[in-house]
Amino acid sequence: MTARLFRRLFASLLVVWAVASATFFLASLAPGDLATKLADPRIPPAARERLREHYGLHRPLGQRYLAWLSGVVTGNLGDSFLYRRPVTQVLAQALPNTALLASVGLGLELVLGVVLGLVQVRRPHGFWDRVLSAFSLIAYAVPTFLVAAGLLWLFAYRWPVFPASHMTGLTAPADFWTTLADRARHLALPAITVGVTGCGAVARYLRGALLDEQAQAYILGALARGASRRRVLLLHALPNAALPLLTVLGLSLPFLVSGTLVIEVLFSWPGMGQVFYSAVTARDIPLIQAATILVTAAVVAGNWLADAAYALADPRIRR
Amino acid sequence: MRRRLPRRLRLGIGVLLCGLAAVSVGPLLLPDPQAILDPRGAGLLPPLARVFVIKLADGTVLAGKALRRSGDKVLLWRAESWLELPSSQVRELGQRVFLAGSDALGRDVAARLASAGRISLAVGFLSLALAVLLGTLVGLVSGLGPSLLDRALMALVDATLALPLLFVLLAASAFLRPQTATVVLLLGLSSWMGVARLVRGQTLAVRERPWFLAAQGLGLPPWRLAAFHVLPHVATPLLQDATLRLGDLILLEASLSFLGFGVPPPVPSWGNMAAEGFEVWRLAWWLPVLPGLAVALVVLAFALVAEGLGELARGEA
Hints:
heterodimer, A: 319 residues, mainly alpha, MetI-like fold, 77% helix, globular, B: 317 residues, 3-stranded antiparallel β-sheet, 11 helices
């Protein structure tokens, strides 16, 4: 197992390197280099040449690539055109916000999904099972922007309980608790959107896993020893069924991250997705490169961690 | 005895057939989806709204919610006031109903939805074809080829499956020209991995079968083994997988177009219609909601068909 994890770690590093290189070569293939983008068309050609030299654009592609790659390794990814600051600073500001949204959203998704799954297996093929099966199928099919539009209409327009966008209110909050409440109110709608769009997959997976578990002999044994159905379901079947959920969540991480991109843009949440979106719209190449590398690295690392955690938690595959 | 198809399959196919009928016949019956009809008079009208349309002698078209005649004048209720027009200037008078409302420019949303459906479905099908072709090829090579190649290809598949697709697609489209063909290419090139994994798994299972060993023993070339002895056994699970994947691709295209990096306007796609509508959702709920519902319905139908096919394959019908 350890060897497998190490192999996967190596493969993950390879992926991050490949994606990083792809962003570099795509950017150098794209028409118009940094100097033509940065400089006003009216400045004299001599000054433009100086600018090209300043950014090292006169060197051959291979040399530029190596210099850029060593910059990536040392965390020097250049300045953002859009924000006029080092891209690492811009991303360092955005990353915690995305982490907050993604983790609260994921938590909500898990809770909702597990509750739905549990209700469904209480009476398989019964009324609630059918209704909730339909619900999770619909939750999968409805595009994120429609969920967001519905929530916005309900809770920001019809009954304005929550703010429609941004992460903080306009007034400077007085103390810690008002800040917290303000943050939570702004977090509500985007996090619910993450939870609702994702809970269907969790519920569908858990329903199947719980039904499989309940067919096992140890469940019959527990029931025969007089444990109540509820106890058997919650304490015996659920822990075993929920374990592979780790892998499912690890595999769904790319979708979660892609989902938060749309949600951040819709709710003007100042996270990675929003920064990335504005970078792509403005063709801010250093920022696009850095954000792509960072997000890829985060997702790949998350995947690897989910794998490792699963191996730790399940002795059967810890060979 | 005649077996009935599973209910989900019938429901899914029914919805899809209705959808196909709507997008193939709709654009023929409905007005031009790009035609702009007097934004001030016919902009942002709710579904089933009726407007009066006046064509003037100089060719301008005006629209309004009410029409009145007094003497030799025609009065048109347009932009919250009565507009007086001398009868001599009016060349044509007509009425029009917006089935699904109108957008800010006074374009017919129903017509746009139908023609967007053509685009969205075509993009979905074409990118699916690309993904299935590429994935099947890689899966077959991986399953039948040398083990070193197999391991390398599967490592590539694992790695690319772990990428946050929307970020990668967006980053790529930042460097490429926005074009419908580019979208098809990007979507296809980024979703073949699941197909490859499926085909490889099935191929490995087939390789153990006695008749396959017999065919191999006869000295058939690898391409014949792949085409006539493996592919027929992969077809059923592949069909089910492809149906589900088509829904995923349509969702992805919608998200991409919604963010402004998919099908470029003015060509309507469900995603870019929703994006345009989202800017005015407080004034016109139907603009973001109807394209969203169209996507949801189609994706749901494909998911139902995929589930139904699964039931059929397992013999649960």
